[in-house]
Each structure stands twice: as structure tokens, then as C-alpha cells.
Amino acid sequence: QVQLVESGGGSVQAGGSLRLSCVASGYTYSSNCMGWFRQASGEEREGVAAIYTEGGTTFYADSVKGRFTISQDNAKNTLYLQMISLKPEDTAMYYCASLDCPKRGRWPREYYYWGQGTQVTVSS
To answer: CA–CA distance from 67 to each of 11, 17, 103 (Å)?
Structure first.
């Protein structure tokens, strides 16, 4: 059974940093990317970062470019999202997910697997 478990969320002030982690178990790659999406209260899901599982190519939403960095440690089956210069508009539940890599800047609307999420709250 596939399980993705996120951690590392919390409450920070604007300009602060957080690092999210996602540990995968029982998992065999069924997609070409692993990534993170977020969902703010009352809003649609938004893909924010993804990494090609077999090559390391990364993808970022325009809203987080230059501030978020996605990485993976295959030996630990762990995906990371380093977030710096956080803004109040980054406040959301963040989910680790298995997904198709974005194409021409278009992010998928569906995901193969995702975790339970970790809350990130940024205050001004």
C-alpha cells in the first residue's frame, strides 16, 4: 500500500523559512514526477513544485520560483520542499504527491497518490 507522509509545516512570520519533508513507503513510481501541491481554504489546488523522478529536472509555479526548492533523497525515499521568503499568500495545506510532470507550464489537475498534508501558515 502506497503511503506518503508529510511533515515540517508550521506557523511562521512573513520572510521566514520552512522545510517540508515527505516520506514514501510501499511505493513504486507510477508517474514521471513527484511534487507538491497546495490548497488554501476555499481555493483550488495549485501545483507548486515537481521533480522528474529519473533525472532531477525541476518545475516550479511562477508564484514560488526563486523562493521554493524541491529535492529528493532516493536513498531515504524522501522528498523535500525548502521554502524561503515566505509570504502570507503561501498559507495553505501542502500535499506531497505523485503526478505527471508539468508540460509547457501547465500543471496537472489530478494526482496519482497524495498524503494527508501539512499546514503552512504565514502571518504578516
So the answer is: 17, 9, 21
Which amino acid belongs to residue 15? G
Q: Please tell me the distance from the alpha carbon of residue 64 to that of residue 28, in angstroms, as a whole number.
A: 28
CA 95 from chain centre, in angstroms, equals 6
How many CA atoms are closer than 13 Å to the CA of 82, on its beta-carbon side? 6
Write out pLDDT tens, residues 79-116.
999 999 999 999 999 999 999 999 998 999 999 999 99
Are 87 and 73 in contact by the 8 Å Cβ rule? The answer is no
What dihedral angle (degrees, nearest 10) is formed by the CA atoms of 23, 65, 46, 93? 50
